[in-house]
Amino acid sequence: MPFGVGSHVTNATLFSPLTIRETEFRNRLWVAPMCQYSVEKRDGVPTDWHLAHLGSFATGGVGLILTEATAVSPEGRISPEDLGLYNDKQQAAFSRINAFLHAQGTATGIQLAHAGRKASVYRPWAEEKGTAPAEDGGWETFGPSAVAFPGYSTPTALTLSQIAQIVEDFRAAARRSVDAGFDVIELHAAHGYLMHQFLSPLSNERTDSYGGSLENRARIVLDVISAVRAEVGESIPLFVRFSGTDWVEDGGWDIEQTTIVARWAQDAGADFFDVSSGGNVTGVTIPVAPLYQVELAAHLKSEAHVPVSAVGLITTAAEAEDVIASGRADAVMMARQFLRDPHFALRAAHELGVDLDYWPAQYTRAHFR
After folding, report:
1. CA gap 9, 7 in Å, rounded
2. What domains can be seen in the chain, in order of their start residue?
3. How confident is the model at residue 10 (pLDDT cuts 50, 70, 90)?
4. Where is the NADH:flavin oxidoreductase/NADH oxidase N-terminal domain (predicted)?
5. What is the pLDDT of residues 42-62, one digit of tens each?
6. With left for phi above 0 and alpha for psi between -120 and 50, is residue 93 left, alpha or beta?
7. Burial call 239-265: b when 16+ CB within 10 Å, e when fewer
């Protein structure tokens, strides 16, 4: 299905279309998932805030909008104020949002997630910190092992039957995603959330078939990919977000393991890999600087021979164009830059000399001259 691909004139690779399975994206400048922690009723249902937040990017000319991490079960939420997709009311609210986004010509994706040991926490701007107790809307947390994330409660180690239920929860949420009108499904295996917790030996101390060897630690990720692909069929693009590294010199998750698992993931049915980093441990030194994660994406692309997106302190049109033109990534995802400027894609096109044919008619008077 094409989204907004027309006769715009471009010599910029950033604004060239990209096709994955049956979906054609009008450009390669995409909105990364950004948690809003804004479901005040704590029922996981998207609100007018989410419509306005995501809608602003759609009118701004992007090629794909990924929603924030959306839990596949109530206990999978990061905070009580997180989105979910495990009931009919949530699905109906997402359908309404997708209808508006599609009307602006952009493709839409949902990031399905389970927070694991990092669930049930206060939202970032709350005065309280750490794990929220039951009286504040919190719940018991689970992880691959009874190993706490620093500052959070110790999780209960998942049983094999509970792991199987989580795989089923992802499958069911994927079905709801398609029925709600999403064009892309992304599975969140990064930033220290549940699937990343299984992948990293720093948080996975299991001795059964889900722990120990790389094959075992990757098992839940591959189980989820296989279940989701079987559920949604062959036409829906399936993304996986990986943290390329824990930023730990010895004993942690790293780009070499990511490369191996990405190949396995592609064999299991994944199409595209969104490469970020960190989030599973604290007390590490992360070399935060412009484009600091791009080489992780480039490594995965060149060594695993899979399509990737780059993300992380990419803030200018020239930077984004260079990432694509140099072949280091197939798409660029931005987050904070879009918060600062929801119509960044329109401005980036102007700066790169691209004449778009999908400016919103209502905004024509603001066209760059």
Report:
1. 6
2. 13-366 (3.20.20.70)
3. low
4. 14-352
5. 999 999 999 999 999 999 999
6. alpha
7. bbbbbbbbbbeeebbbbebbbebbbbb
* 281 Cβ neighbours under 8 A, 6+ residues apart: 150, 192, 200, 202, 203, 246, 247, 248, 252
In one letter, which amino acid is 233?
G
d(CA 259, CA 67): 25
156: buried, middle or exposed (CB in 10 Å: 19+, 13-18, 0-12)? middle
To 10 degrees, what angle do helices 88-103 and 160-179 make?
A: 40
Mean pLDDT of the chain, nearest integer: 96
Q: What is the pLDDT of residues 166-211, one digit of tens each?
A: 999 999 999 999 999 999 999 999 999 999 999 999 999 999 999 9
Cβ atoms of 66 and 109 within 8 Å: the answer is yes
Q: Coil, strand or helix: which one is 138?
A: coil
pLDDT confidence band for 3 (50 / 70 / 90): low
- For position 259, what pLDDT does the model report? 98
CB 3 within 8 A of CB 104: no
* Overall residue count recorded for the chain in this entry: 369
Active site residues: 193
